[in-house]
Amino acid sequence: MPNRDMVLKSLAGTPVTIFFQDLDGNFRWFVNPQSVWAAADRTGTHQSALFEESALDDLAAAKREAEESRKPQSVDVTAVSVDEAGRPEHWNLHLTINRTRDQENGVEGFICSCIDVTEQKQRERTLKNLLREVSHRSKNMLAMVLSLSAQTARVAPTKNEYIRRFTGRLQSLARSQDVITDSNWRGSSLFDLVQRQVRDVVPTAEAQILFEGDNLELGPNGTLHVGLALHELVTNALVHGALTLANGKIVISCRRASALEGGATLTWTETPRVHSPVSRPKSFGRTMLERIVPAAVNGRGALEITDDAVIYSLSIAKSEII
Question: Is residue 8 scored above 70 in pLDDT?
Answer without folding.
Answer: no
